């Protein structure tokens, strides 16, 4: 946990270093390796700023891998179009549909795991209503995945 001078904590295991005065309302250096840093609001109270606040999503580090995987799935779907165009046997097409569906489901599960580990975990660090909103959002996403 990172501990700021004001006593707030973040999950990095290091003490945050402040680089500006609390009363200015400007952000601190933070020093956290995990992207969580402390900032001080106008009243001087510390608040945690995470990668998610900076617009970095959970899949960011695996973006290239995800794009490669999605291109592969896209190729499978194009293969389905070709199979229909070439009047391939129905069961063979259905087998390919099944493979494409499984590939998309696997991708969705990986993305969900990254969302839980990053976005929901960031909200948990902050606490309050934000964690409730993220858990509700994740629950609805899981429900949508189960319906497919």
How do the helices and strands line up, and which of them pair or pack?
Elements: E1 2-3, E2 9-10, E3 37-40, E4 46-49, H1 63-85, H2 90-126, H3 129-147
Antiparallel strand pairs: 1-2, 3-4
Helix pairs in contact: 1-2, 2-3
Which structural traits does this protein have?
148 residues, mainly alpha, two-stranded antiparallel sheet, two-stranded antiparallel ribbon, 3 helices, 53% helix, disordered N terminus
Give structural notes:
This protein is mostly helical. Helices cover 53% and strands 8% of the residues. The protein contains three helices and four strands. The strands form two sheets. Strands 1-2 form a two-stranded antiparallel sheet. Strand 3 (37-40) and strand 4 form a beta hairpin. Helix 1 (63-85) packs antiparallel against helix 2 (90-126) and helix 2 (90-126) packs antiparallel against helix 3. The two termini are 39 Å apart.
């Amino acid at each position: 946990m990172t501990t700021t001078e004001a006593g707030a904590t973040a999950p990095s295991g290091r003490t945050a270093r402040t680089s500006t005065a609390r009363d200015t309302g400007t952000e601190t250096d933070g020093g956290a390796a995990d992207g969580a840093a402390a900032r001080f609001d106008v009243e001087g109270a510390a608040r945690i700023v995470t990668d998610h606040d900076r617009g970095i999503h959970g899949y960011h580090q695996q973006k290239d891998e995800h794009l490669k995987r999605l291109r592969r799935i896209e190729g499978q779907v194009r293969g389905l179009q070709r199979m229909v165009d070439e009047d391939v046997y129905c069961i063979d097409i259905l087998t390919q549909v099944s493979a494409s569906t499984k590939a998309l489901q696997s991708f969705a599960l990986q993305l969900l795991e990254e969302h839980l580990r990053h976005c929901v975990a960031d909200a948990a660090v902050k606490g309050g209503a934000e964690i409730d909103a993220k858990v509700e959002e994740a629950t609805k996403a899981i429900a949508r995945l189960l319906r497919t």
